[in-house]
UniProtKB/TrEMBL annotation:
Coiled coil: none annotated. The lineage of its organism: Bacteria, Bacillati, Bacillota, Bacilli, Bacillales. The gene is nadA. GO terms for cellular component: cytosol. The keyword Iron applies. This is Quinolinate synthase. NCBIfam families: nadA, PRK09375.2-1, PRK09375.2-4. Pfam families: NadA (PF02445). [4Fe-4S] cluster binds at C92, C212, C302. Its EC number is 2.5.1.72.
Length: 350
C-alpha cells in the first residue's frame, strides 16, 4: 500500500462498519497495537478459542494471531464460517517443532517401551495434525492458563504423560504438581530417542524437545540484573520460559494471568515482565502509575506474530469486499474430526 497509516485505518474502520456482524476480528495479546486497535476481542489462546467457538454470527473471521490459532478457530467454528489469516507467513516456531510423522514414530517407540500407560497432551501451540494425533489417542489440548488442570486430569487417566511440543510449559506444570525433575524425560524428535539418565520405568512425564524461540531469550542472568538494580521489583514470566527462569521469578502465568496480576497491583508497584514485547509495551502504556520494564532489556518480539500488520489486515478486509478471499485456513475434515476431540476435552475441563 502507498496509503498513509491514517488512510489505511480509515479504510479498515469503514469496512468494519459495512460488514457489521458478518465480520469478527479476534486478536492475540501479542499482536501489534496497529492491529489490536481493530480487534473485536483480544485474549490469550484459551479465550480466543472460546470466543471463536461461541461466535455463530460472523461469516468471516479474520484471525490476528498465528497459524495454529486460526486453525483452531476453523476447527471450532461452523462449516460455513470462513477463517482468514492476514499473512500466511505468520506461523509459530514452537508449533513447527513437532510434525505428525515425528509423533507417529515417537508413539510407536514409546508404546513398545511403556505399553498403554501414556496419555498424550498437546499445548494448543501445535498444528491441527498434532492435535488430531492427541485426540485419536484420547488426550487433550492445554493452554498456559489451564495446563495444571489438564495435566492433573491426565494423571487420573494414565500413569504417564507425553507433553507436546513445549518442554518448558510441560516441565513447569508437572513440577508445580509435584512431579520431581528426575521423573521427567525428554523425547528428541530428531534422533527418535528418549533422553533420560535413570531407570526408564520411573518416568512419569515425557517432554517433547520443543521450545518458544521468544521466551528462551529470558535468562537467569536477566533476573539477577533486575534483582541487583531494582531491589523492590517483582518478576513475573510466562511459563514458556525455562524451569530455571520460572524458579528464579516471583510468579508465572499465561498472558491473561500476567495482565490480571498487574492490573490488580497497587499504584507505585514495580514489575519486570518476561513475555513478548508487544504485550509488555501495552501493559507499560496502560499502567503509567506503575514502574514496569521488560525482563530482557532488548525486549523480545515474536517475529511471526508481528507479520500481521495494518497493511495485511486491510488487504484481507478489502479482499472480502471484492469477493476474492485469500489466505483461507481450512483444516481437512479427517484431521478436524480428531483434533476437535482433544480441544473439546480441554474446553470441558477448563
Ligand atoms: P497464551 O496466550 O496462552 O498465554 O500463550 C502465549 C503464546 O505464546 C501464544 O503463542
Ligand atoms: Fe510461537 Fe513463541 Fe511466538 Fe507464541 S511467542 S507464537 S509460542 S514463537
Amino acid at each position: 500500500y502507498t496509503l498513509s497509516t491514517e488512510e489505511m485505518e480509515n479504510r479498515v474502520r469503514a469496512i468494519k462498519e459495512r460488514l457489521g456482524d458478518q465480520l469478527f476480528i479476534p486478536g492475540h495479546h501479542y499482536q501489534k497495537e496497529e492491529v489490536v486497535q481493530f480487534s473485536d476481542s483480544t485474549g490469550d489462546s484459551l479465550q480466543l478459542a472460546q470466543v471463536a467457538a461461541q461466535n455463530k454470527k460472523a461469516k468471516y473471521i479474520v484471525f490476528c494471531g498465528v497459524h495454529f490459532m486460526a486453525e483452531t478457530a476453523d476447527i471450532l467454528t461452523d462449516e460455513e464460517q470462513i477463517v482468514i489469516l492476514p499473512d500466511m507467513r505468520a506461523g509459530c516456531s514452537m508449533a513447527d517443532m513437532a510434525d505428525h510423522h515425528q509423533t507417529d514414530r515417537a508413539w510407536k517407540i514409546l508404546q513398545e517401551k511403556f505399553g498403554d500407560t501414556i496419555l498424550p497432551l498437546t499445548y494448543v501451540n501445535s498444528t491441527a495434525a498434532i492435535k488430531a494425533f492427541v485426540g485419536r489417542n484420547n488426550g487433550s489440548t492445554v493452554t498456559s492458563s489451564n495446563a495444571k488442570k489438564v495435566v492433573e486430569w491426565a494423571f487420573t487417566q494414565k500413569e504417564r504423560i507425553l507433553f507436546l511440543p513445549d518442554q518448558h510449559l510441560g516441565r513447569n506444570t508437572a513440577f508445580d504438581l509435584g512431579v520431581p525433575l528426575d521423573q521427567m524425560a525428554i523425547w528428541n524428535p530428531i534422533t527418535d530417542s528418549l533422553e533420560y539418565e535413570g531407570d526408564e520405568k520411573d518416568i512419569k512425564v515425557i517432554l517433547w524437545k520443543g521450545h518458544c524461540s521468544v521466551h528462551e531469550n529470558f535468562t537467569v542472568k536477566n533476573i539477577e540484573n533486575v534483582r541487583k538494580n531494582h531491589t523492590d521489583m517483582q518478576i513475573i514470566v510466562h511459563p514458556e520460559c525455562s524451569r530455571e527462569v520460572v524458579a528464579a521469578s516471583d510468579d508465572n502465568g499465561s498472558t491473561k494471568y500476567i495482565i490480571d496480576q498487574i492490573e490488580a497491583a497497587p499504584p507505585g508497584s514495580k514489575w519486570a515482565i518476561g513475555t513478548e514485547m508487544n504485550l509488555v509495551q501495552r501493559i507499560i502504556k496502560n499502567h503509567p502509575d506503575k514502574e514496569i520494564i521488560s525482563l530482557n532489556p532488548y525486549m523480545c518480539p515474536c517475529l511471526t506474530m508481528n507479520r500481521i500488520d495494518l497493511p495485511h489486515l486491510l488487504w484481507s478486509l478489502e479482499n472480502i469486499e471484492k469477493g476474492t478471499i485469500d489466505n483461507i485456513i481450512k483444516v481437512e475434515k479427517s484431521i478436524a474430526i480428531d483434533a476437535i476431540k482433544a480441544l473439546d476435552k480441554m474446553l470441558l475441563l477448563a
